[in-house]
Each structure stands twice: as C-alpha cells, then as structure tokens.
Amino acid sequence: MAEMNFPAGVDVYDRFTDPDISSLPLITQCKNYIAAGNLAAANAILEANPSLKMMQVNAQNLNQILETLERMQLFILENIQQYLVDIAKYKGDWNGVTKYTKYDVINYIVDGGTQSYMGILIDIPIGTLPTNTQYFISLTMRGTQGASGIGLAPRGVWASTIQYYKDDCSSYDNMMWQCLADNINANPNSSPTYWVKIMDLSKQILFSETEPASTQQGVDDVFIKVLDNDKYEMYRKNPNGTYTIINLPVATHTHTKANIIDFPTSLPANGGTAANVPWDGVTGKPATFPPPAHTHTKANITDFPTSMPPTAHTHTKANITDFPTSLPANGGNADTVDGFHIAGIGTAAPASLVNNALFFVYE
Questions:
Q1: 3-state class (DSSP) for residue 66
Q2: Lowest mean pLDDT segment, chosen from 3-12, 121-130, 186-195
Q3: Confidence (pLDDT) at 127
Q4: In the beta sheet, which residues pair with residue 195?
Q5: What integer best gives the mean pLDDT of the chain?
Q6: Cβ atoms of 304 and 296 closer than 8 Å
Q7: How many CB atoms lie within 10 A of CB 155?
Q8: Phi/psi-derived region of residue 358, left when phi > 0, alpha when psi is between -120 and 50, beta in every other case
Q9: How far, in Å, CA of 263 to CA of 269, rounded?
C-alpha cells in the first residue's frame, strides 16, 4: 500500500474538478496525442498544466481510493479494539489541580455514586469538572435511586452525600439504622425524625493503606494499616476521632528452618563447633598479633649464656671504686718512686751514680 497517515492522522487528497470550456482545447490535444501513441507529448501537456490531472480518472487515482477503503476496513476488523484501549488513559479519581487532556479517563462521584468520564478536547482547563459536557463525555450511565421495595433496602455505610429513602437500611457508629423518611445528610445519631436504630453491631475491623475517613468508623473500632512487605500496624479509634496504635506482645513461638531466610546451606561435620573451623574459614581475624608489654625471669630464657665476657668499653673516674684520692706531685710520672730515681737498666753498672739513683743489672 501507498504511504498513509491513517489511523494516526488524516490523509489529505487533491479533489477532482470538472472540465470547463477553457480547458477543452488542451484536453482534446492530450487525447489526440494518446490516440496517436505519443504518450510523451500527452504527459508534457499534463505536466505543464497540473489542473488537467484533476480532471481525469486513471489507475493511480482509483488505486489510492481503493487502498484507503481497504485500510479502513482492516482497521475496523482487526485493530479498532486495541486502538481504543491504547488511546484511553486512565487517570484515577478526578483532582482539581491536575491537567487533563483528550482521552483521559477519570472517576468522579455524582449523587453518591462513582461515574467515569473521558476528556474530548486536548486543552481542558485545570479545575474543569467532569460533568462539563463541553470538555468531557460520560462513559457510564446511572439512573436515580428508586424508592425502596418491600422490607429494608441495604445501602451500606451511611454517608452525608447520599440520598436515602424510607426503609433504607444503613450502618453508622457500629449500629444498624432504618430510614423513616427521605433525607440527605441527616446524621442517624442525631436525627430521630429520619432514623431509628435497629441493632448494635460488633466492633468494626477495617483494612486500609490510609487512615479511614471520620465517618467510616466509631469509637473503639479497629483499623489495620497495610504496610509494604506484608506488614501491618493495628490502631484503635479514640473518642476524639484520632487513632492509637495497638502494641501486641510477641507470643512465645518457634520457627522451622524454612522460616529462617539466611539459614546456611551446609554445616561442619561435627555439627558446627568452632574447634574444627579451618583458619581460612575465620572471618574478621587481625593480620598481626603484637604482644603486650611484659617481663621475663632468667629461667624463662632458654638460651641464657653461662658467662658474659665484657666487650671493649671505657669508664669515667666515677665508675672506678678504688680510684686514689691523690697522685704524685708531678702528676704520677713513674720516674720517681719514694724518693728514688731509676737511672737505667743494663748488663753492667755504670762507673758512678748520683745520690738516690737506682740501676738495674740483668744477665
């Protein structure tokens, strides 16, 4: 098939026109060329006079129309349902600050009942009510509430926006009520003209992700808040309308292996005592173990030496315990000892010596 925009867009085609008196000479000339087999000359006339093309019907024109009709039939037979599903965008409950556009589908409460509407214009002003037929169409049909039949007609939990009729039956504040006369926004607890209590109800337990509206529960009713990951919180309604969490004690209980999410896939052969855990299996161990400050006796040293010869060293005078208190007058020169002078040492005594002189002779 030729390139087409449908169904995403509208295809535009040139419109055909009827010949007029001014175009007849060119049409006749073109037909004569065709009759003579001179198609090139005929096409030259058409190219020079584009308006003549829209005065003739040929295979190209007819095929374009046929392809459009075929495309529409296939679309209706095979694609219309998915197309409608794709273009409609569900936006949930109507919100006065949300920008809506064409094909947006929203819910809106009318006369106590939820109805659905779809946008029909691209530019819908923010805050436009869905009941405004200039911008929305209703996708649901709901008639007015009829009168109750024989006996009581259950109407669910009482709400101030719902029209009630005689013999309607509604629950409010953990009590069942019978409507005595048509009314709207007549609180059963304070409107004896319109309501009479039939029976007391058990305390209500309501599951919800958000706190219930003030009219949904009475004093001491239980609200169970649904959290993520299958977790819950339990609340009790107070006389002032607020809720207080109920802290339930954890009862004594046991678990199976299947309830333990991080149970190991295997245990040591002896049942798991730490005595046989390999060193490589110990996590968190330090890289080194530095010893703390401590002392040892000689007996604790296995290679203590039997003797310790001194190494080369020096002492100060203070380190010498028997250092003399005085020295000879000349500073301790050994040349004189007790008044005697050593004159020399040799194998024979000299011919003469001075007084107090000593000479050592050796053989």
A1: helix
A2: 3-12
A3: 94
A4: 179
A5: 80
A6: no
A7: 20
A8: beta
A9: 16
Per-residue tokens: 255: 């678990």
Q: How many angstroms separate the CA atoms of 101 and 89, rounded?
A: 10
Q: DSSP strand E in 81-152: where?
A: 89-93, 104-110, 113-119, 136-138
Run of H or E including 336 = strand 336-337
Q: Does residue 92 register a pLDDT over 80?
A: yes
* Dihedral sign computed on CA atoms, order 45, 47, 49, 53: positive
Q: 164 by DSSP, 3-state: which?
A: strand
Instruction: Name the residue type at position 213.
Output: A
CA distance linking residue 300 with residue 304, whole number of Å? 9
CA pair distance 101, 122, nearest whole angstrom: 5
* Cα-to-chain-centroid distance, residue 350: 122
Contact 209, 177 (CB under 8 A): no
Question: pLDDT by residue (tens digit) across 158-178?
Answer: 999 999 998 888 888 878 889
Residues across the chain:
363
For every residue of 205-252, DSSP letters joined together read EEEESSPPPTTT--TT-EEEEE-STT-EEEEEE-TTS-EEE--PPPPP
- 223-256: pLDDT as tens digits: 778 777 657 777 888 888 888 887 755 556 677 8
- Look up residue 302 and give its two tokens: 């296995």
Which structure tokens are listed for 181? 């006369």
Q: Rounded distance, CA 101 to CA 87, Å? A: 11
* Residue in 253, 220, 254 with CA at minimum distance from that of residue 239: 220
Which pTM was predicted?
0.30
Name the token pair of 93. Answer: 């409950």
DSSP assignment, residue 79?
Answer: I
**Percent of the chain scoring above 70 in pLDDT:** 79
Question: pLDDT value at position 104?
Answer: 93
Q: Which amino acid is at 218?
A: G
